[in-house]
Amino acid sequence: MKIAVLVKQVPDTETKIVINANKNGIDESNIKYIVSPYDEYAIEEAIKIGGETTVISMGPDRCIESIRTALAMGIQKAIHIDTQGKSYDSYQTAAALAKVIKDGGFDLVLTGKQGIDYDNGQVTQMAAELSGASQVMVIDKLTINGDKAKVERRIAGGSKEVYESGFPLFLGCEKGLNTPRYASLPGIMKAKSKPIEKKSADELLGGATALVEFTNFELPPERAAGKRIEGEPPQQAAQLVKLLREEAKVI
Amino acid sequence: MPNYDLTPEQMLLKNTVRDFAEKEIKPVRLELDRKEEFSYELTGKMFDLGLFGVTCSPEYGGQGMDYLSYIIVVEELARIDGCQAATVAAGNSLGIGPLYYFGSKEQKEKYLPPLCSEKKLWGFGLTEPNAGSDAGNSKTNAILKDGQWIINGSKIFITNSANEMSAGVTVQAITDTKDNGKKEISCIIAEQSCKGLTAKAMKNKMTWRSSNTAELYFDDVTVPEGNLLGKRGDGFKQMLQTLDSGRLAIAAMGLGGAQGAFEEALKYSKERIAFGKPISSFQINAFKLVDCATEIEAARSLLYRACWLKDQGRAFSKEAAMSKVYCSEVFYRVANHCVQLHGGYGLMEEYPAAKYYRDQKLLDIGEGTSEIQRLVIARYLDCF
User: Fold this and answer.
1) Contact yes or no for A184 and B13 at CB 8 A
2) Is the CATH number of domain B237-380 1.20.140.10?
3) A185 vs B11, B19, B51: nearest CB
4) What per-residue string of b and e applies to B168-187 under the rule 16 or more CB within 10 Å gives b?
5) CATH T-level assignment (fold) for domain A2-204
């Protein structure tokens, strides 16, 4: 089975986000980048299934670090779709990925349920659609039996949905699917000699540019200080109900 | 200009060990310390990660990385827990090191793979109850008789040597006394299972409480003549070389510990409110934090350069001794500030500040005291 893992490089979850001077993005100068945590479940699942595994990442040169992490964990080879300083939206990213995935003849495409930077959660679905493949998102269980995959996803109310699908198939992975391994030291050394193929996003997209453009970024307003309710319990309760009704307007 | 970037492999390694230490060690470090318990589980996981045999050739099960990579491993472990860092540093520098550098091909093929990848630990038996800094005064002796070494004596403070993973020890022994009274010192390999070898775990430690420290007793321990490590009479030289490299790892423990204690101090200082403001905003505290951050940067530059010298195959003994004494003492100052900034909570074992403070002290003493490091450096300055 040929498996592709789509990996996105994102700012570390502990990054203090600073908006750039043009207010159309974030200041990237002091950011530590990591593999988007949900993508780690996809990497682990691909390694567990085995077969021919390829990690694909689209972005600037720095995302080679994330590719190396996937290779050090145990993925066999890599494709880096270089954005060469340009920005692409979810659709164009999906279009470029779909082209590479179709050309590569992959049976199974695993990725995180969403990137934890912009949280758009749409590239996987669009790429699946553009490749003419099936897709199930937010899965936490996968069993492959011959030419069929059985997947499970949790839905509201504690129930789960069970799907069965043929290939090619795109799956968006959720926490709980597995426990991602650490990149071991021998793995890091082996990754040195694993091939990273380079492709140009611009060429794959025939020069097409982003359809969506960011015009303004704002930080969320700072949380106001809490309110302390004084008095005896009966008065506190009355005061609380009053505030919930009149100020918070939730009851 | 020098290049200060880590290689892609060193970056990956730093991330992976930091991630491991945060997720696997941090949640249990204080409890293991309180119970004075050596963790087989964590040690096993550290083997799985490939933290033993970092610089050893893959031919013997090692990772074949450079020395700076190893130092980064120790630094990142020590940032969270000096005890686990100690298990790894002793495993690499003292257990695997001498066998790898001085062993014959047969000895390496026999002893190294289990120590690199089969979850076995090895000790380096040097210090004796009455011979520490004056290692040349050791009493343990080995007599060659009928093609076998018969070892008698005792060793103390031997890391990794009294637990279920302990597979053996490289023991330094007097193998002859010349007519002029000069002792011939050699290193001999003794497996843990040897008859007459007793290992006793040392308890009630102030420091490194969840690392394994042993007293070893040799009572007519008999091993084949071929268990001699390297050449007869080379024991003292081998010991000095082992300690030269080992000092870099102890320095890494100082650097990593200082980094960890500093991060705790900074976090707490920003959270703790006194007189209506975070205590970090009082200049007297801010300046303490500034001094910590600055000294840590200086310590890292010194240590990494010493590693760079070693990786280039150049002389590094002086810089190793400087790194060991400086990083240990930076850790002392940072741990002290860390406890002070925590106030009363700094005195409570529920906070990691106290553990950093206690764990630091070993570094002024182990693998050559700060006094001995200064002696080594003074010799390079032609002071005597």
Assistant:
1) no
2) yes
3) B51
4) bbbbbbbbeeeeeeebebbb
5) Rossmann fold (3.40.50)
